[in-house]
Design brief:
Elements (H helix, E strand, L loop, with lengths): L13 H6 L10 E3 L14 E3 L4 H20 L12 H19 L5 E5 L6 H8 L4 E5 L7 H4 L5 H8 L4 E4 L2 H12 L8 H6 L1 E3 L6 H9 L1 H14 L4 E9 L5 H13 L8 E9 L5 H21 L4 E4 L5 H10 L2 E4 L8 H9 L6 E5 L12 E3 L4 H13 L2 H15 L4 H9 L1
Parallel strand pairs: 1-2, 3-4, 4-5, 5-6, 7-8, 7-10, 8-9, 10-11, 11-12
Helix pairs in contact: 2-3, 3-4, 9-14, 10-13, 11-12, 11-15, 13-14
InterPro entries: Glyco_trans_20
Pfam families: Glyco_transf_20
Protein name: Trehalose-6-phosphate synthase
Amino acid sequence: MPDLGSGGPLAASGLVTTLRPLAAGDHVQWVGWAGLGQAPHRLPARLTDVELDPVVARRYYDGYSNATLWPTYHDNVFEPRFEDLWWPAYVSANQEFARRTAAVAPRGATVCVNDYHLQLVPRILKDLRPDLRIVFFLHTAVPSRSIFNRLPTADEILRGIVGADVIGVQTNAGAEAMARLFYGSTAKDLDVYAAVSRIRAVPAQVDFTAISDEAQSGRTTALAHRVRDLLAPGRRIVLAIERIDPVKGVEQHLRAYRELIRDGSLDPRRTVLVQVGVPSRRQVPEYQALSDRVRQSVAEINAEAGIRTAILIDRAVAPATLIALYRAADVMAVTSLNDGMNLVAKEYVAARADGDGSLVLSRFAGAAEELGDALLVNPFSVSAIKAALLTGFDAPPAERRRRMSGLREALAGKSPRTWADRLLS
C-alpha cells in the first residue's frame, strides 16, 4: 500500500471539519477538552482547556456519550448500553465545561455549544451567566421520540438543551423531530412552546470554493492521476470514505459490491472498490467488532475474485490526497444508515469541479435534503445499492453531468463560515 500521508481537516470528524475554520476568528475564545490522553486534532491557539479526571472522562466520553447517546441518537443502529456511573460523570463533565465557559466569556457574549456531549451546558451556563446569548447545535441525527424516551435521563437532557436561546439542528426533518421530543416530554416544568420556537435547521457545510479550487489545481490533478495509477491502473473506482462506525453503513456497500462481483455485473479486473475506513472509538466493543468484520470482508472479496478488487485504507488520509481520491473516483458511495449530515458527500461534490462523477447517497443522510440530484438509495436494501452503483458507472456522460451540475449548484458559495453566520445571527 503506498503512503498516502497523514490525516488532516478532511479526514477529521464532521464536527471538527465544520468548526476548525472558525478557530482563526479574532474574537473567538474556545473552551474545549483535548481528549483522553491525546490531542487527535490541531487545537486553536485561543483555547481554555477543560481538565477532566481520567475516570470521569472515560465514563462521560466513552461511556454515556458514545455508548449510550450516540446509538440512541441514531435510532438504535446498535444497542445502547447503560451503566449507573456514566450519567453522574456526564453531569459532572457538563458542569465543568459550563463553569470554565462562564469564567472566560465576556459580558453579553454569544456562546455556541456543540453536540450531544454537552447537552446540559446551555441550562447550567444560563443559570451561571444570564447575560450570555447561548446557541446549541446538535451535529448528529435527532432520534425518534419513542427511542429517545427510553433514556432514563430524557427529561434532564431536554431541560439542558432548552437553556439555549437558539437550538440548531442539521435538517428540516431534524427540526421536526426535535419539536416532537419536546412535545413528548413528561417534564412539567418545560415551556414546550418556547422551546420549539427556538429550533432552527442550519445544515453544516464544507468550504465549497476552497475544495473546488484545490481540486482544479495542477498539483491535485497530477496527484489524482498518481492515485489512480497506484490504486487502480486502467480500472473504474468506487470510493467510500467514513469512520468505521455502525451508523455509516460500510458493511452495506461492501456487501453490494461483493454481490456485483459474484453475479458478474462488475468485472473485478476492470473495477476496484477503495474503502477509506478510519477506526474510531476502539474502547466501544461494537466498533472494534465492526472494524474486524470490515477487514475480513475486504479479504474475502479479494479471495473470491482471485484479484485485488477491494482496497482497505484503515487510517486517516492527508487532505490533498482525499481531494485527489474524490477526483479519481468514478462513483462515490455514501450509504449511512442514519446520519445527521455527512460532509463526505459534500466534499465529493465540491471536488468534482470537472462536472463528472456519480454520487450514491443514502436517503437517511442529512445531506440528502440538499443533494437531491444524487442517486438516492435506501441503505437497508442491498439490491438498491447495487442498482445505484451500476447506474453510477453506466449512466451516459450527459446524465452524470446534469446531476453533478445540480449538486454543485446546491452547495455553491457555502462554507463553515456561512453556516456559523446563519446559526449565530
